[in-house]
Write a structure and sequence with these properties.
Blueprint lengths: L2 H8 L11 E5 L2 E5 L3 H10 L10 E4 L9 H17 L2 E3 L6 H7 L8 E4 L13 E4 L2 H10 L1 E5 L3 E7 L8 H12 L8 E5 L1 H4 L3 H8 L2 H4 L3 E3 L4 H11 L16 E6 L6 E3 L7 E3 L10 E4 L1 H4 L2 H11 L9 E4 L4 H9 L2 H8 L2 E2 L20 E4 L13 E4 L2 H10 L40 E9 L6 H4 L27 H4 L5 E4 L11 H9 L3 E4 L4 H9 L4 E3 L13 E5 L4 E4 L4 E4 L5 H9 L4
């Protein structure tokens, strides 16, 4: 049998298996992340399932290691509560990437099996273990039964011949292989990697190559373990482990030889990890940012390479270099070795360990039009943000960050490239265009009253901070009051021209403009309050959102749903249901001028 067949057979009821067999596989490490973890919990609870073996069951919180996103924070806490109730171990937000943790903590080892809600769980092929990313239903069943079904894949024997050129990194090796095979030539295969130079690869280098098996379309890239890997895994598991090898008469569907000595320094062009070209085809492209990290290149060897190149140098003006170690133990090691100090002196930004750029909202994301060079494993459109992402080795990424454009280490210029302000000048308004006359805005409005008798309604209640990335006013209205208890459906029920009447200190809290603009988007005609938060009051006036302050409205005998008219100039308010009238503080001259202007601008 091949290596994959041996591993699967050893974890099934069969003594031998062959490609195409569908078997139940015992799973040694069963992992759910903060991404997918709550769904695993939901599947278990809805189907009245319990955890079969808590000692083999884990949560890893790596996609949002800062806990900075409200939805992720909620999901993480759902998982924490379930873990406490079921004695499940959590590798929390301070730990790092889950697949690396499995290796470094000894839960994955040569010949073992692991599954995770991480599509790059096949990174465990670096230590000759079976790892697979699976959906939340599969993970839930594995937690409950200890097994999942799996189809035994066909195997390919890939031999790298020749000597490895000195300037070729592990990342260059996998990018050359992607150039050779693309994203689907080896689709669905388990690939065993052999060769004299392969035997010399360090654990960190094997991890880099194995991590991009997914981008090749392969089930897994398996590296027969050398003594360094065996010694590492024995130390981490604190027990003897037998080396797993393919039989000499193992049957492979394909046997392929590739000349390693012909490999070149490569880079993936934006949009496709397999869209690789020689680095010379991308040199001198100006960059805005650089990222070093991900499960592909955030190991200690990667960070040492980066520090060596950065020593005594600075990141180019205007370029942001983001560095994210793979695990917290690697972060600590980088601190002890002085690497973090080197990074900071050079002007880099260091984040706590985790998936980073591959996870939305985390360090490494980029914005529209931004050019990023990254050590990540994916550069699909939108994956690492809305800009363009090039994939390359750590040495090329850091050299580019110093140069200000894509380059290699031995071509870092004495003076970095700088941004030309002329390239970023905003389009000027054509002053010959005739200025349109402003229409007179109504100074008397009428509408149905929303009577909200609650003091200190803050900006988080009005427009929660989880929506702060929204900049289009047309998208803001739907979230108005969705964090105010009892008014979560306000945006669905409110009508244009409706009027909000509330009490003291409305809009206290943050300076977010969205807490004003969400009501403008809904067409609310005016907000009446006994007092407003100081910043909220200014924001409203400047945005031409009508607000007015009253001392008392008792004369109106106002009830929720009444229709009232409000005169901004005189301050007169009339309850159209009972014809009761009162007067409050009218618009000041400044507020009226800004209102008629349509806003401060």
């Amino acid at each position: 049998m091949t290596i994959i067949e041996k591993i699967l057979a050893n974890h099934s009821k069969y003594s031998t298996v062959k490609p195409g067999d569908i078997i139940d596989v015992e799973i040694d490490a069963r992992v759910a992340r903060d991404f997918g973890g709550p769904n695993v919990v939901q599947n278990l609870e809805q189907n009245n399932l319990s955890v079969e073996d808590a000692s083999k069951t884990f949560f890893t919180f790596d996609t949002n290691p800062t806990g900075s996103d409200q939805k992720y924070a909620t999901n993480q806490h759902i998982c924490r509560k379930y873990a406490r109730a079921n004695n499940i171990r959590i590798f929390d937000i301070d730990k790092g990437i889950g697949t690396h943790t499995l290796i470094d903590e000894g839960f994955a080892y040569p010949g073992s099996t692991s599954i995770s809600t991480d599509s790059h769980a096949n990174i465990l092929g670096a230590i000759c273990a079976f790892g697979q990313g699976m959906g939340d239903r599969d993970i839930a069943v594995a937690w409950a039964k200890g097994k999942v079904w799996f189809k035994v894949p066909p195997s390919v024997k890939l031999t790298l011949t020749g000597k490895r050129p000195e300037n070729i990194s592990a990342k260059d090796i996998i990018l050359n292989l992607l150039n050779e095979f693309g994203a689907n030539t080896l689709l669905g295969y388990s690939i065993e990697v052999y060769g004299e130079e392969v035997d010399k690869l360090s654990l960190d280098e094997r991890i880099t190559i194995a991590s991009m098996a997914t981008e090749m379309g392969a089930i897994i890239l398996l590296f027969p373990p050398n003594e360094e890997v065996m010694d590492f895994c024995r130390a981490k598991t604190n027990r003897e482990i037998e080396k797993i090898e393919a039989d000499k008469d193992a049957k492979y569907e394909k046997e392929i030889e590739v000349d390693l000595s012909s490999f070149e320094q490569m880079i993936s062009l934006p949009g496709k990890p397999h869209g690789t070209v020689n680095i010379n085809e991308a040199k001198k492209i100006k960059i805005d940012s650089a990222f070093i990290g991900s499960c592909t290149n955030g190991r200690i060897e990667d960070l040492r390479i980066v520090a060596t190149i950065l020593e005594g140098k600075k990141v180019a003006p205007g370029v942001v270099l983001k560095i994210v170690p793979t695990t917290d133990s690697i972060w600590q090691q980088a601190l002890e070795e002085g690497l973090i100090k080197t990074f900071k002196k050079a002007g880099a930004m260091i984040s706590n360990a985790g998936c980073a750029g591959c996870a939305a909202g985390q360090v490494g994301q980029n914005g529209p039009g931004e050019i990023t060079i990254s050590t990540g494993n994916r550069n699909f459109p939108g994956k690492q943000g809305k800009g363009e992402v090039y994939l390359a080795s750590p040495s090329i990424v850091v050299a580019s960050a110093i140069a200000g454009y894509i380059t290699v280490v031995n071509e870092i210029p004495v003076q970095p490239a700088e941004f030309n302000p002329a390239d970023y000048v905003n389009t000027k308004i054509d002053k010959t265009e005739q200025v349109k006359e402003k229409e007179e805005r109504p100074t008397t409005v009428a509408g149905k009253v929303w009577l909200i008798e609650e003091d200190n309604i803050d900006t988080d209640m009005i427009f929660h901070n989880k929506y702060l990335a929204i900049t289009d006013i047309n998208e803001m209205g739907q979230y108005a009051f969705d964090n105010l208890e009892g008014y979560e459906d306000f945006a669905k029920k409110v009508n244009q021209t409706d009027i909000i009447v509330t009490t003291k200190n409305f809009g206290s809290g943050s300076s977010r403009q969205q807490a004003v603009d969400c009501f403008k988007a809904l067409g609310v005609s005016v907000i009446l309050a006994e007092s407003f938060g100081a910043i909220y009051e200014r924001n409203s006036i400047n945005a031409a959102m009508p607000i007015m302050i009253y001392n008392s409205l008792s004369e109106l005998e106002l009830k929720n749903g009444d229709t009232i008219s409000v005169n901004f100039k005189t301050g007169e308010i009339n309850n159209l249901k009972n014809n009761k009238t009162t007067n409050i503080q009218p618009f000041s001259d400044v507020q009226l001028e800004i209102y008629q202007n349509g806003g401060l601008f």
